[in-house]
Amino acid sequence: MEQHELDKLQKKALEQFKSGESLFGKDGAFGPMLKGFIEAALQAEMDAHLSPEQRKGGNKRNGKGSKTVKSSAGSFQIETPQDRQSSFEPELIKKRQTVLADSLADKIIGLYGLGMSLRDIRSHIAEMYDTDISHTVLSQITDRIIPEVKAWQNRPLEAVYCIVWLDAMHYKVRTEGRVEHKAIYNILGINRDGYKQVLGTYISESEGANFWLQVLSDLQNRGLQDILIACIDGLRGFPEAIASVYPKAEVQSCIIHQIRNSLKYVASKDQKEFMRDLKRVYKADTNELAHIALDELAGKWEAKYPIVIASWRDNWEKLTTYFQYTAPIRKLIYTTNAVEGYHRQIRKVTKTKGAFPSDMALLKLIYLVTKNIEKKWTSPLQNWSLTVQQLAIRFGDRLPLDLKRNPERG
To answer: Fewer CB under 10 Å: which end of the chain, C or N?
Structure first.
């Protein structure tokens, strides 16, 4: 670009800035300026490519081609230098690249992570930047994060996590032309320094001991050596699987889910009174007092609701692990509220989705939403310094506390 042309564009940009006009899009000054920069950079790349060795081999410039490039500064046509042997591979804008790897691609991925459909993203980009991007190109841009997703799924974990919560979300996914219901299981952990971390995300059509064995083996292979307390929502096959991989882990079933399941079988006219009696069970100060309250509950309601009472008795051992701990730890482990809170934030983004086109499409969105959520997890849990000391006393050598350890994000 000639100097006088550059001066004119700079003057135009200043005028648009002062008047509040957009510097981007069809009539913005930034597009032509970016075009000039790109073409100059491509010429410089060609100069570097045509080394003395290349020239000795008979290679030299061979005219120019052209293509339309789309960017946050709008769409514009650039001239691309060519060489006789067609061996020039530009780095700034690759041969088949049509969307500039600038903030536009980042904006597209960011909008996708906020739950916008590709159709809505296309409309937004067209309105904001006067640039039309096809559905195929948008898919290709969002697919750029697939290596990140896979790296995230396989990243190393810490050796010990104090508390781990497991829970599922359910989505529709297209598989070979059919819509299937699949569960995505998320595992949320608290490390020694009290920070939340999503340890893993796994998709499955059904759960069971074999599935959970694969999940726990994956965590182990990624470096997780010990789990102190695992909090679950009645996951089928999980107790058997964790006993084989992490035999020392204590399992706490979610009290809130047990209560919800119980109330499904209690008549609405009895629910208020039943809950008042049931609260004396799970709010008791000790396991012994809770057992007495359960016997009293059974004496009053077992004849009418035998299945409900039997469920509490059958699951008593897994439901009452939390009685071994002080109130602050009980509050953390007797429900799966921590992972459910994480799920609520994900659902805010995914609630408008119908069926996902593939497992990877679902994983891409979950990954992007999770990265946004994790930006808020910048502090350890409240009063964690006292909580971790109590855990260290209970679990001894399984939870070594290194006072020199840097607590910054573990």
So the answer is: N
